[in-house]
Amino acid sequence: MADTTKKQRIFMTGASGYVGSRITEFAIAQGYEVYGLTRSDASAEKLKKLGGVPVPGDLSSLDVLRRESAAADIVIHLADPFNLDLSHGYDHVIKAQAAVADAFADSLKGTDKPLITTSGTLMAQADPNGGETDETAPYHERGLVSRHIVEAYDQSLAKKGVKVSTIRLAQWVYGRGGSGVRVVLQISAQRGEVLCVNEGANFVSTVHVDDAARLYLLAAQKAPAGSIYNATDATNITFREVAQAIADVLHVPIKSLTLEKAIEQLGEFFGKFLAANNRASSAKARKELGWEIQEKQGILADIRSGSYVAVAKELLSNSGAGSAH
Which of the residue ranges 81-85, 174-178, 253-257 would you say has the lowest mean pLDDT? Predict the structure, then answer.
């Protein structure tokens, strides 16, 4: 818990973003001060409204990162320069993230201050027999992107005396009407159909954004150096089920494509993302950090009767999607 006599300071990148804004609110409620890197007036205003302190800059502002991490008790790194466009490759992301990690290491090595970095469960290869995987599963060398290189570099900071841990977010972080579910709703409303790959038989890992946010704070409080935790809830849901829920609220049909056709129509990243098979277990986080799932509605119910209902209604009223079906 935070010190009651002097508030502990968290410095965060991505503090006003989808997951970061929830971490910010939970952290402030627990008695922390949150300083967040903000690259625009809009994100600065959003952070202020959450109760945080904006720090102007971006991920290339390495002196700012060094200064703020030195002044903080905890550093949480969520921001990512990747914009889901693979037309220029991924090497620039790897290089940028390594520079950020080095800047943090300059200030944190030998201090025992926690650094929590962000990765994804899609870094791990799926079990060939369809079972769940844990954090020891081998990296997916031919995954969506070479994010495993970023994760491995972040983890290597432990050898330099940095108390680093990594949260692997589920491929489908959902809730509060945002993230990937919202994107698929938008695309599906525009197209008048929900796309899946090979009938959507692939399993997906999911987690509610609030539960993911709580795990970051638990890692800050309890995680040892060099640790990795999957942030996942359900792993027994197929993408077909997600697609059906989206189709139901938009009143549009489902269309199955081959992977090649999906990449052709949606681009390499998004086509492969829809096809990705992922069943990442969070048993380690539950056992070692005492993480508990508190948002029990589940992704399918949240789409059909929860936070995405209003999103679907807005999209339908704007586009007229579903009117012909």
Answer: 81-85
Does an H or E element contain 218, and which?
Answer: helix 209-222
Instruction: Record the pTM.
Output: 0.94
- Kindly report, residue by residue over 74-96, the tens digit of the pLDDT: 999 999 887 666 677 788 889 99
- 8-state DSSP, 139: B
Q: Which residues are bridge partners to 254 per DSSP?
A: 194
Q: What are phi and psi of 89, to 5 degrees?
A: 75, -170
Q: What is the pLDDT of residue 136?
A: 96
The rounded Cα 73 to chain-centroid distance in angstroms is 23
Residue 16's nearest CA partner among 65, 51, 61 is: 51
CB atoms within 10 A of CB 43: 20
Classify the phi-psi angles of 216: left when phi > 0, otherwise alpha if psi is within -120 to 50, otherwise beta: alpha
Locus of tokens 């809730």: 175
Residue of 158, 46, 43 lying closest to 109 (CA atoms): 158
Contact 160, 105 (CB under 8 A): yes
Residue 316: both structure tokens together? 């339908």
Q: Find residue 139's DSSP bridge partners.
A: 124
Number of neighbouring beta carbons within 10 Å of residue 303: 28
Look up tokens 């005492």; give the residue.
290
Q: Strand 172-174 to strand 163-169: parallel, antiparallel, or no bridges (unpaired)? A: unpaired
DSSP string across 61-83: -HHHHHHHHHH-SEEEE------
Give the tens place of pLDDT for each residue, 220-246.
999 999 999 999 998 999 999 999 999
Centre a 10 Å sphere on the Cβ of residue 22 and count the other Cβ atoms it contains. 21
The pLDDT of residue 4? 53
Q: Is the pLDDT of residue 159 over 80?
A: yes
